[in-house]
């Protein structure tokens, strides 16, 4: 049995959090591979170490002293070392980093040091071997992972050492230069490591007990989701749910490795399991047919009405060609007998809205058109919805009872996602209403 345990920044923000991590690792001998992020915030008014490192670079760029910021970074690691009773030679590490701090330096090297230093401390604390991600996470020059070299290096590192700690977020190019993932990339490191080593489970430890059914900023103390498929996760992430880094799923999904989202502060909670499918998902076994509710604000609808001399399909085709010319791709479209509607993120229309609308209105076959801003899209996601009739009717009824007007509705072909459009002003109220109706 092998578990890869990745810990996020909030789980590693202080020596007290380090102790929680050690207790988690010590409680299960199969947790032999640990991936760490840089220290996160200790409180709401604190700073993430990675943000401070980016700030150092900004000061360098504009020839402003970075000393006070770097001292804050040094202090964070010194506090962790002292609180955990460690002996890691941080002074020489900081000296090495400072020697690189000059205008034109590699920003990716600088910001990767947050994970690097945290992994050095965690390795000593756990009694594991530190393995630098630069030695085992191998990028090609095109920015993609070289899986052959990466997999070979990781397997050798584990076989040689038994238990290892790897910093997340970065790797190296063939010439040894540091290359980072986008922010949140430690999730990706954990997935790559899990796939390379054929882990039985990839545990992603954070500060919530799994994936929540709805945004806790909108609904207080929402229920967590015990099980979710990769397809549902993709739908929820696409519609704005802050779940995992978008590139995390691919490596583990390809190997069919379960992902378990866990809470470092409540390790007894089982969290959320993410898998390709679940055997009990069949008609007649439906406990909660809605998995999650999420959404995004600030969309614009463009409704086009055809005259009787032009077919909707032909006019829609020319309209999509116009969208392509303006570089604005619609998120959704729906059509009727004499009309169709396109939905765009408002920000994508900002610089060409009137030109696009004017040219579209002058297109042969267009009888009339309407443009409406301040639209929100809410997604109701659930693999079980295909087995439950009348979901759309229940959605309309629940929203109607709260006098929330539905501007549009769409159901995905695989029946795991129903999207409704409402006014921005009704966004939070609509999500609360749907959650209270279906949770």
TrEMBL record:
- Give the EC class as a word: transferase
What domain of life? Bacteria
Enzyme nomenclature, EC number: 2.7.2.4
Say if the entry is tagged with keyword Kinase: yes
Question: For binding ATP, which residues are annotated in this chain's numbering?
Answer: 6-9, 206-207, 217
InterPro entries listed in its UniProt record: AceGlu_kinase-like_sf, ACT-like_dom_sf, ACT_Aspartokinase, ACT_dom, Asp/Glu/Uridylate_kinase, Asp_kin_monofn, Asp_kinase, Aspartate_kinase_CS
Q: In which pathway does it act?
A: Amino-acid biosynthesis; L-lysine biosynthesis via DAP pathway; (S)-tetrahydrodipicolinate from L-aspartate: step 1/4; Amino-acid biosynthesis; L-methionine biosynthesis via de novo pathway; L-homoserine from L-aspartate: step 1/3; Amino-acid biosynthesis; L-threonine biosynthesis; L-threonine from L-aspartate: step 1/5
**Record bears the keyword Transferase:** yes
Any one GO molecular-function label of the UniProt entry: aspartate kinase activity
Q: Which of this chain's residues are annotated to bind substrate?
A: 50, 115
Provide the catalytic activity annotation: L-aspartate + ATP = 4-phospho-L-aspartate + ADP
Q: Keywords in UniProt for this one?
A: Amino-acid biosynthesis, ATP-binding, Diaminopimelate biosynthesis, Kinase, Lysine biosynthesis, Nucleotide-binding, Transferase
Q: Which family does it belong to?
A: Belongs to the aspartokinase family.
Q: Matching NCBIfam families, A to Z?
A: asp_kinases, PRK09034.1
- Its name, as the record gives it, is Aspartokinase
């Amino acid at each position: 049995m092998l578990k890869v345990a990745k810990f996020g920044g909030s789980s590693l923000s202080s020596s007290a959090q380090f102790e929680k991590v050690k207790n988690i690792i010590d409680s299960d001998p199969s947790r032999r591979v640990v991936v760490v992020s840089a220290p996160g915030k200790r409180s709401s008014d604190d700073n993430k170490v990675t943000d401070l490192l980016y700030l150092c670079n900004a000061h360098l760029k504009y020839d402003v002293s970075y000393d006070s910021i770097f001292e804050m970074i040094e202090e964070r690691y010194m506090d962790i070392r002292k609180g955990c009773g460690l002996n890691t030679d941080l002074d020489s590490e900081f000296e090495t980093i400072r020697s690189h701090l000059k205008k034109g330096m590699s920003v990716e090297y600088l910001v990767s040091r947050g994970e690097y230093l945290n992994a050095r401390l965690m390795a000593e604390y756990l009694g594991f071997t530190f393995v630098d991600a630069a030695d085992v996470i191998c990028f090609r020059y095109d920015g993609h992972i070289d899986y052959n070299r990466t997999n070979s290096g990781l397997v050798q590192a584990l076989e040689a050492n038994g238990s290892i700690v790897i910093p997340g977020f970065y790797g190296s190019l063939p010439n040894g230069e540091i290359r980072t993932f986008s922010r949140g990339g430690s999730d990706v490191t954990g997935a790559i490591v899990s796939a390379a080593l054929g882990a039985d489970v990839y545990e992603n430890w954070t500060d919530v007990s799994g994936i929540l059914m709805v945004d806790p900023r909108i609904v207080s103390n929402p229920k967590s989701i015990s099980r979710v498929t990769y397809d549902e996760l993709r739908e929820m992430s696409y519609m704005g749910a802050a779940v995992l880094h978008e590139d995390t799923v691919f490596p583990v999904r390809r190997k069919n490795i379960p992902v378990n989202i866990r809470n470092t502060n409540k390790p007894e909670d089982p969290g959320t399991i993410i898998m390709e499918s679940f055997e009990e998902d069949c008609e007649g076994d439906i406990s909660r047919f809605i998995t999650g509710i999420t959404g995004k604000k600030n969309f614009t609808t463009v409704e086009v009405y055809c005259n009787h001399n032009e077919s909707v399909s032909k006019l829609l085709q020319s309209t999509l060609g116009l969208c392509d010319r303006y570089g604005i791709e619609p998120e959704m479209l729906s059509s009727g007998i004499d009309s169709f509607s396109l939905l765009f993120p408002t920000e994508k229309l900002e610089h060409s809205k009137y030109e696009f609308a004017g040219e579209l209105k002058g297109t042969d076959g267009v009888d009339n058109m309407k443009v409406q801003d301040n639209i929100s899209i809410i997604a109701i996601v659930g693999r079980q919805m295909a087995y439950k009739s009348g979901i759309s009717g229940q959605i309309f009824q629940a929203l109607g009872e709260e006098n929330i007007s539905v501007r549009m509705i769409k159901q995905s072909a695989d029946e795991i996602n129903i999207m409704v459009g409402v006014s921005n002003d009704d966004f939070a109220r609509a999500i609360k209403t749907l959650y209270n109706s279906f949770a």
